[in-house]
Design goal:
The protein has 247 residues and is mostly helical. The chain has one domain. The chain has seven helices and two strands, in the order ββααααααα. It has a two-stranded antiparallel sheet with strand order 1-2. Helix 2 packs across helix 3 and helix 3 runs antiparallel to helix 7. The N and C termini lie far apart (48 Å).
């Protein structure tokens, strides 16, 4: 798909690995940029040593630290302290993957629904395991609202179960859809601007207008990348709160 805006979403096998016939565990560009995101996270967190007068990097880390700490405290309460390292890591990891696509010749792992569903299903099962470990079989009482008439119980249990299970899908689909749409729009406008610029004459001069739009979209996409990472982590905190407090 040469010169296609969808080219940025193509999965490429970097190191093909087929150990058992049709079993494919190849290292792809998705794998590579997820590793880069994880490595960069470790780099920015460990490069500063808690200076009294923070550097720019330390200020950014402290800002993200305060943001995620407040998110966990407001939504889970004191019981959420043990989940803070996970939420902090999850936010930075997703934010980095979201923004990769804004850099030329890179790849955005979160634009693929299998990556985001992998994250969302892992969180979904983790929340259920936490709930079961705390409340044992009483955890399933969350599917039957208090004061529900007995004759409505089967219907409400089914509705609550479907609603609860849908969290795993909606969490991943929301992230992938927003990132894909934004990056696709950015690629289309950037390609349109470049074609105008190389056309020559008055059209090249006129390309200044879409170029300014692309600059605006770039800033908007950075904001969207951060907001989507925040929303993903916020919903994760809400799901953890439901499991910890049995809402």
């Amino acid at each position: 798909m040469t010169n296609s805006p969808f080219e940025q979403f193509e999965i490429i096998r970097i190191i093909p690995i087929h150990p058992f016939g049709n079993l494919d565990i190849s290292i792809t560009n998705t794998t590579l940029f997820m590793v880069i995101a994880a490595s960069f996270f470790l780099f920015i967190v460990n490069m500063e040593k808690g200076l009294l007068i923070p550097t720019r990097w330390q200020s950014v880390v402290e800002l993200v630290y305060g943001l995620t700490h407040g998110m966990v405290k407001e939504n889970i309460g004191a019981a959420g302290a043990r989940f803070f390292p996970f939420i902090f890591t999850l936010f930075v990891f997703i934010a980095l993957m979201n923004m990769f696509g804004l850099v030329p010749y890179t790849f955005t792992p979160t634009s693929h629904i299998f990556v985001t569903l992998g994250l969302s299903f892992s969180i979904f099962f983790g929340c259920n395991i936490i709930g079961l470990s705390i409340y044992k079989l009483n955890f399933f009482s969350m599917f039957l609202p208090a004061g529900c008439p007995l004759w409505l119980a089967p219907f409400l249990v089914l509705v609550e179960f479907v609603s609860h299970s849908a969290k795993a899908i909606s969490l991943g689909v929301r992230l992938a859809a927003n990132i894909t749409a934004g990056h696709l729009l950015f690629a289309i406008l950037a390609g349109f601007t470049w074609n105008m610029f190389i056309a020559g004459g008055f059209i090249s001069i006129a390309s200044i207008a879409p170029f300014l739009v692309v600059l605006f979209i770039s800033g908007l996409e950075i904001a969207v990348s951060l907001i989507q990472a925040y929303v993903f982590c916020l919903l994760t905190c809400i799901y953890l709160s439901d499991s910890v407090h049995l809402h």
